[in-house]
């Protein structure tokens, strides 16, 4: 990559960010209808400096719920995908279940889980994040487990490889990039689902709860500060999973 290309890769997002700030500043000066509720960037920055500690605590709650849900959804997705790849009848039984889970409305599911586990527990929110993360992980892992070619499997059989050796030497390396891709997709979905779950009830902490509370009371600057924190949490999960995906795909055997 040349120096010009590197500069362009850095300059493009910086220019986009500056442009978005300018648009934000212009919109904050419009006092027509709902646009009057948009605070200026300077007001949001001042609010963030004033309540940054409280926002960080709520961000940790949301991030923790997302992480627990992402790990649980990943483990369950990998386990069921391996079962579906191993047993064809299991694949037939799991396919409609996964399809049904994929279209479950989080807005309707969250109140039910909060009622089941109690309004003061984070369990319902974590389960919502886990359910959302499960589907992309399951779909991608199942696809990855079926990517090994017959000629490759025949080669392992020709060398009298055991099923365990075939799994470690062929199936797992081929499926690993699909796994990390599924986790990357699931991480963003889990963050959004955790925020939505917080928005619709449960304990009083968390970014989603704060956004709903301050938006309803008309404190737009604080609400937008929490929106910025939610974006930051989503970016952290996305960047970490992208880094993991890059490391795995870079080391993928030819």
Q: Which helices and strands, and how do they pair?
A:
Elements: H1 3-28, H2 41-86, H3 88-102, H4 106-117, H5 123-145, H6 150-158, H7 163-199, H8 207-216, H9 220-250
Helix pairs in contact: 2-3, 2-5, 2-7, 2-9, 3-5, 4-5, 5-7, 7-8, 7-9, 8-9
Amino- and carboxy-terminal Cα gap:
23 Å
Largest sheet: none
Portion of residues in beta strands equals: under 5%
Helical stretch tally: 9
Shape summary: globular
Rounded to an integer, what's the Rg over CA atoms?
22 Å
Q: What does the average pLDDT come to?
A: 84
Low-confidence stretches: none
Helix content: over 70%
What's the total number of strands?
Answer: 0
Structural class computed from helices and strand pairing: mainly alpha
**Series of H and E elements:** HHHHHHHHH
Structure characterization notes:
The protein is 82% helix and 0% strand. It is mainly α. The protein is globular.
